[in-house]
Design a protein that fits this description.
Helices cover about 25% and strands about 35% of the residues. It is an alpha/beta fold. The protein folds into two domains: about 50 residues, Vcp-like ATPase, Chain A, domain 2 (Roll); about 180 residues, Rossmann fold (3-Layer(aba) Sandwich). The chain has a seven-stranded mixed β-sheet with strand order 9-8-7-10-11-15-12, sandwiched between helices. Strands 2-1-6-5 form a four-stranded antiparallel β-sheet, with no helix packed on it. It has a two-stranded antiparallel sheet with strand order 3-4. It starts with a strand and ends in a 6-residue tail after the last strand. Keywords: Methyltransferase, S-adenosyl-L-methionine, Transferase, tRNA processing. It holds the Pfam family GCD14. It comes from Natronomonas salsuginis.
Length: about 240
């Protein structure tokens, strides 16, 4: 749960204790969202339910996670929903897997670094999706022959993504989607070529750009601060021919 006062936010489990500049906060074991709790100095904090966007700010990070804007495109373009099965590689912090799990998607995700995988498992506990997200330590490309296929979605955020893209027809259910994220256009081109070689359909690549707007007394314009570009997303679909 989130415990909030102004700009102060703490991610706590019921029964946890948190030292703050406004005093020590003991979160009751039976606390519910909407409750106002006080520190030992009498300073109030509001308890809120953890929501999806909060994950990006509060999960422990082991690298640069996918941005919410990118995750939104994956969900919107593939239509992944509760009851679907997703195969993912390049778990990292696990933000994408957590978002999918909170939608009710059953996720199998591979992370090469054992320490990163351990952090991701803890993050799935924090996000409340550990029963839906299976974090496996290892390289997806080395485990392809062990998987039974039939996944509704294949998501990749790894340097060797083209090798997995080539096997997408063996991994996806008919009508299933592929989504590959890359910060570099060179690897994106390789993934597009691999998708074409594999006979995938509806191949398209989008650059993800988002700009904040500034409003003041002088007028309105896009903000000159921040980075608008995050990366490239390539989508494709497995549509086998039954002729």
């Amino acid at each position: 749960m989130l415990v909030v006062r102004g700009s102060r936010e703490f991610l706590l489990a019921p029964g946890d204790t948190q030292e703050t500049d406004l005093g020590i906060l003991d979160l009751p074991a039976d606390v519910t969202p909407g409750t106002v709790v006080e520190t030992h100095l009498g300073e109030p904090f509001e308890v809120r339910r953890l929501r999806g966007p909060d994950l990006f700010d509060h999960l422990e990070r082991t690298g640069a996670p996918m941005m919410p804007r990118d995750i939104g495109l994956v969900i919107g373009h593939t239509g992944v929903a509760s009851g679907d099965r997703a195969l993912d590689a390049g778990t990292g912090t696990g933000v994408l897997s957590a978002y999918l799990g909170r939608l009710g998607v059953e996720v199998t995700t591979y992370e090469r670094d054992p320490e990163f995988a351990d952090v991701a498992r803890q993050n799935m506990e924090t996000a409340g999706v550990s029963t839906l997200v299976d974090v496996r330590t290892g390289d997806l490309t080395e485990a392809l022959d062990e998987l039974d296929g039939g996944f509704d979605l294949l998501t990749l955020d790894t340097g060797d993504a083209p090798a997995a893209v080539e096997r997408a027809p063996d991994l996806l259910a008919p009508g299933g989607f592929l989504a590959v994220y890359s910060p570099f256009v060179e690897s994106t081109r390789e993934c597009v070529a691999a998708a074409r070689s594999a006979g995938l359909a509806e191949i398209e690549t989008l650059e993800t750009i988002q700009r904040r707007m500034d409003f003041d007394d002088r007028g309105s314009r896009p903000s000159t601060a921040g980075v608008g570009h995050t990366g490239y997303l390539t989508f494709a679909r497995f549509l086998p021919s039954f002729e």
